[in-house]
Amino acid sequence: MEKLENELTGKIALVTGGTKGIGKAIADRLLEAGANVIVIARNHPGDENLKHHFISADLTISSETDKLVKEISEKFGTIDILVNNMGGSNSPSGGFAVLSDEDWERDLQLNLQSSVRIDRAILPQMVAKKSGVIVHISSITGALPVYESLGAYAVAKGALNNYSKSLSKEFTPQGIRVAAVSPGMVRTDTMDNYLQSLSDTMGITVEQATQNLMSSLGGVPMGRMALPEEIAELVGFLVSPRASYITGVNYIIDGGANPSV
């Protein structure tokens, strides 16, 4: 246990979208393992006891990414671990017909292009020292799209999966491991708000909306949502020396919902 608690000592980790939900759980997990953790989000979480180094940035804007990387380089040096967790969707429910160009663009920027931008900025540092780990937090919807309410989001996550694999093929020979993690339903404030929105839109209870969403994924054999800490534990392993031969994979962590092998 002592070894696990110190296995990331001396490492600089950057977690985007790291102030709440899955991102915060990941940041906490890496901190427990000894890493020096930087979290990025658009807004400060308002937590006076925040244990991570917080930097405000909107990674859907190119100039914000450039400014962020410059600040990190000046204050912390080079990044050893990059966890691209930012993502989400505010697109309306109702399927393909209700999605505007703006909905598609917003979801693609947040769930794909923001990761591409930060990777492009950080990768040269990793290549120079021939080491580093990048983890993209994707979604089970990348393989099992929920078209009624998450069409554009699912397409963006599917593209993120393909991009992550492509990146691993190119940069693993240069010492950088790249992996993706695709959670299913996770009990976060964002998920609770999303289920409430579905409930309001469809005129059903939150419990019914939850069951409908589980059913749209083919059912969840585990019978519950994941906890953010359960996703973080997988990420903590993937960025550690214990996962030194793991790259180019997409780990689905969904309580058994995915029907394929």
Automatic annotation (TrEMBL):
Gene3D superfamilies reported for this sequence: NAD(P)-binding Rossmann-like Domain
Record's keyword terms, sorted: Oxidoreductase
Superkingdom as given in the UniProt entry: Bacteria
InterPro entries xrefs: NAD(P)-bd_dom_sf, Sc_DH/Rdtase_CS, SDR_fam
GO terms for MF: oxidoreductase activity, acting on the CH-OH group of donors, NAD or NADP as acceptor
One matching Pfam family: adh_short_C2
Family from the record: Belongs to the short-chain dehydrogenases/reductases (SDR) family.
Protein name per Swiss-Prot or TrEMBL: NAD(P)-dependent dehydrogenase (Short-subunit alcohol dehydrogenase family)
